[in-house]
Each structure stands twice: as C-alpha cells, then as structure tokens.
C-alpha cells in the first residue's frame, strides 16, 4: 500500500525548469509512506530458512518475500566470517540491528538500476540517488530516507526525477545516472550532477551538449537546474561542493573521447571560475577549513594537485603522492582520509591527509579479504572511526558483504557484520556492492545504498539499508 502525504509547509512541490508531470509515485516532494503488509521484526538469532529464497530478477518493481516492504534483522549469523577473511582482521562481538527496503520508482527494468552517487546524511535523514543506466532516454532519482519519520514505518521522499526536471525532447539525450557526490550547501539546498548511462548516447545524434548541475530543497520539494553544460559536451561523474563558499567542483568525462577536466563553478555568481585539463575522474579532497581542493590527475597515484579559490588561475602541484578513489569529509582533527583505486589488480590503501600542513601519511591496506575496490569512505563525527565496504562494483559477496570499521587510533580493522549469505538465504537478495555509504551526525547509524542481485549475474535493482552500530562496538 502506498499512501501520499503532501503536508509540507510549501503546499506542494514544483519544478523550476520542467513544468508539471506526475507518475504513480506522486510528484517529487510527495512523501511516500511504506506501510508493510507484513512488517517482519526478527530480533535475536533466528535461524535462516532451510532453503534459500529465490526472487525473479526480471520482475519489477522488486519486492521482498511475502509482501514485506521493510525487514529488520539482528542475528549472530551476521558475525560468521567469510573464508576469505585476512589474518588480523577482527570481527565484532555484538551484531548490529539492520533494516532493508527496496527503493521505489524501479518499475521497469533498468540497464541495470544502479547506485553510483555517494550520499550524505543531514539531521538524521539519508540522501541518495539511483538511476536506470539507460540511454538515450535515461532517468535517475534523488531520495530522502527518514528512518524516524513515524514509529515502525519507513518513509521515502522523492526529491528529484530527472526526466520531469529536464523535460528533454524525444530523441534527445537524457542522463540515466547521477555519479557525483550529493552535498548540502549553506543555503539548505542539496546539490549533485548528472552523468551518462552509456557513451554511445553522448553524441551529436542525440543532440548532446553536456550534463547538468542540479539542486533540490528538501523543505519545499522544489528542484531546479543550476547550470547546463558548465564544460561543453562533458559529463560530470565527479564532484564536491564547498558548502560555505558555495563553489561546486567537478571532474568531467568527455561525451566522446577520453578527456577528463576539472572545473569550479561559483553558484551564487552563476559563473565558471576555472576549467583545466587532466582533472579527477572519480573523487576529490575538500579541505573545508581552508577552502582548498585537492585531486590526482585521472584518478592515479600521482603528485597531488591543489586548487585554491583565492588563486583560480592556476593549479599547483605538491611534492606528495596519494591515492584518492574515495575520501571522507575533514575531521575535527583537520584530517581527510582517502582510499586508493583498488582496481585492475592494484591494492587499496588508506591514507591520512593533514590539511593544515598538506602532509600525507599512509595507513596500510584497506582490504579485509580478496576485494580491493572501495568507492565510499566515511569518518564518524569524532574522527576516530572510518566505515567502508570493499567490492564496490559487484564483488562484495566474495568477502561476505562485510561492513568494515577502521580505528584511526589503533589501525585495527573490524567487520561489524557479514551480510552475505544471510540476506541471500533469507530474502533472496545478494548485496553485491555500493558506491554510497554515510554515517549520521551521532556516529550511531551507517546508511548504505546497495546494488542488489535477485539472481541476476551482476545486479538488477537497488535497496537502502540502515546499520545501527552497537555502542559496544564504537
């Protein structure tokens, strides 16, 4: 059962750039209340089903067994390590309580439905994006997920529907992915950028001019385009927003070809501050305390480049090297933690970057098993613990879909839960990887957007999970 609740002070939602439009989930800005037909609470060590549950990967929208729309679990079986666990990696003593729900809007097969954007938490609510990865008529959504909306219920709020927002003419390119970070500005708006589903559609045949920076206001449900094609005929798979200075930094990918660029866009002034070649392909460091941004060219472990908005005419090269496939926000200690690429046979390694003296300290390997690729890295509010999940691009189950905690004081790696094969056997879903994790402001909850396989070879849909980290484990 889906119930709409539009009781926002604005009196409804609207689009600055698209006019009106509505689908079966309601207008963007409408609250989606999930009222489970069977709300399953499984607290304790309840046993798994004797036979694994099987779901149909060709069925949309995706549904959990027995009509359940939200499931809650806490089991000692989540503490059974995978046989790939490396020596020295610890396992938690108390299992976390977790909840899981499929995202709404996945009403038709994607190519596949996927998460690529790194989400964020604000006031206990989780903001994330999924897309259908299609083209040229792709689509993607931004959602707010509030685990405290109403007792024993979960709420989704759809904030952006790209097709409704952009309203591209038939046959024109419409992005099927949001691959950038989602970041709040000091103005209260949430910012992100769009990306192609496939390079074959970012061509003149589909009238491609470039991708979009967009924003939405969770308080009113309003969404609008900030700018179209800040770098002409380039997608924007990488971004970070400086919320105080309101500068949107982007790393691009050419619609046709392999060129990658770096740009800075002044949001209040609505002007491009710079556009340089050899930009970051996937992630950047923002030093919030100084306003400086750092990246490595084309996502390799090369000398670190620095951009200072006080000197927008040039990039400066620093005499340090670091890997940056994902990065945390700056901690209270003035540290930004990063993890290196971990693909094509390379080892993922953790680094600590001190923004005060621009020094780099290598912390060691991030892997807890065979999987190396990590696409989201988060620090808790104290700056002590890091959280991540190896196996971003579909390989997490190899290591048991582990939720990893890294202690920055001791260098200890600890798995809080092995979610595979538990969820596969019980609900017929394999949690195969994520590009989006976020820790709440109290360090108590870890939000995860999973790419989910219901029996498909890779994955076919997306779900959101809340991991409640036991106090004894933090």
Concise account of the structure shown:
By secondary structure, this protein is an all-beta fold.
Describe the structure.
This protein is mainly beta. It has a single domain, classed as 7 Propeller (Methylamine Dehydrogenase, Chain H). Helices cover 2% and strands 39% of the residues. A six-stranded antiparallel β-sheet has the order 1-2-10-9-8-7. It has a six-stranded mixed β-sheet with strand order 3-4-6-33-32-31, with no helix packed on it. The radius of gyration is 21 Å and the shape is globular. The two termini are 37 Å apart. The N terminus is likely disordered.
Topology:
Elements: E1 2-5, E2 31-34, E3 40-43, E4 71-74, E5 90-91, E6 97-102, E7 120-122, E8 125-131, E9 140-150, E10 153-161, H1 162-166, E11 183-184, E12 190-193, E13 212-217, E14 222-228, E15 234-242, E16 247-254, E17 261-266, E18 271-277, E19 285-287, E20 292-295, E21 303-307, E22 316-321, E23 326-327, E24 335-339, E25 349-354, E26 359-365, E27 378-379, E28 385-388, E29 402-407, E30 413-418, H2 422-427, E31 430-439, E32 445-453, E33 461-468
Parallel strand pairs: 3-4, 5-30
Antiparallel strand pairs: 1-2, 2-10, 4-6, 6-33, 7-8, 8-9, 9-10, 11-12, 12-13, 13-14, 15-16, 16-17, 17-18, 19-20, 20-21, 21-22, 23-24, 24-25, 25-26, 27-28, 28-29, 29-30, 31-32, 32-33
């Amino acid at each position: 059962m889906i119930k709409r609740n539009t009781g926002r002070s604005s009196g409804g939602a609207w689009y600055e750039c698209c006019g009106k439009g509505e689908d079966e989930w309601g207008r963007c800005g409408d609250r989606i209340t999930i009222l489970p037909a069977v709300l399953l609470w499984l607290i304790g060590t309840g046993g798994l089903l004797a036979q694994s549950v099987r779901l149909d990967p060709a069925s949309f929208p995706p549904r959990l067994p027995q009509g359940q729309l939200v499931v809650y679990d806490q089991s000692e079986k989540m503490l059974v390590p995978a046989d790939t666990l490396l020596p020295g990696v610890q396992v938690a003593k108390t299992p976390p309580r977790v909840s899981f729900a499929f995202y709404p809007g996945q009403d038709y097969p994607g190519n596949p439905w996927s998460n690529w954007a790194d989400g964020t938490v604000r006031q206990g609510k989780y903001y994330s994006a999924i897309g259908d990865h299609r083209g040229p008529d792709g689509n993607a959504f931004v959602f707010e997920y509030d685990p405290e909306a109403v007792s024993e219920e979960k709420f989704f709020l759809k904030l952006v529907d790209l097709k409704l927002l952009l309203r591209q003419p038939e046959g024109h390119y419409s992005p099927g992915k949001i691959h950038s970070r989602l970041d709040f500005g000091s103005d209260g708006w949430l910012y992100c950028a769009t990306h192609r589903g496939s390079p074959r559609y970012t061509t003149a045949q589909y009238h491609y001019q470039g991708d979009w920076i967009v924003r939405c206001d969770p308080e009113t449900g309003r969404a609008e385009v900030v700018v179209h094609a800040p770098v002409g005929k380039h997608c924007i798979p990488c971004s970070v927003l400086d919320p105080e200075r309101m500068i949107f930094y982007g790393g691009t990918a050419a619609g046709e070809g392999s060129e990658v660029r770096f740009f800075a866009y002044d949001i209040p002034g609505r002007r491009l501050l710079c556009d340089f070649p050899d930009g970051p392909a996937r992630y950047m460091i923002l030093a919030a305390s100084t306003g400086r941004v750092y990246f490595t060219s084309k996502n390799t472990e090369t000398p670190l480049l620095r951009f200072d908005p006080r000197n927008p005419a040039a990039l400066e090269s620093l005499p340090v090297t670091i890997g940056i496939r994902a990065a945390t926000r700056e901690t209270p200690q003035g540290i930004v933690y990063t993890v290196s690429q971990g693909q094509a046979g390379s080892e993922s390694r953790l680094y600590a970057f001190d923004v005060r003296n621009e020094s780099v300290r290598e912390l060691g390997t991030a892997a807890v098993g065979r999987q190396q690729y990590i696409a989201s890295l988060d620090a808790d509010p104290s700056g002590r613990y890091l959280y991540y999940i190896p196996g971003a691009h579909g390989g997490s189950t190899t290591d048991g879909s582990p939720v990893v905690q890294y202690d920055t004081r001791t260098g200890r790696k600890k798995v809080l839960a092995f979610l595979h094969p538990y969820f596969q056997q019980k609900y017929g879903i394999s949690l195969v990887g994520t590009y989006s994790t976020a820790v709440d402001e109290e360090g108590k909850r870890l939000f995860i957007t999973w790419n989910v396989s219901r029996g498909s070879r890779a994955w076919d849909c997306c779900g959101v999970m809340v991991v409640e980290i036991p106090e004894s484990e933090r």
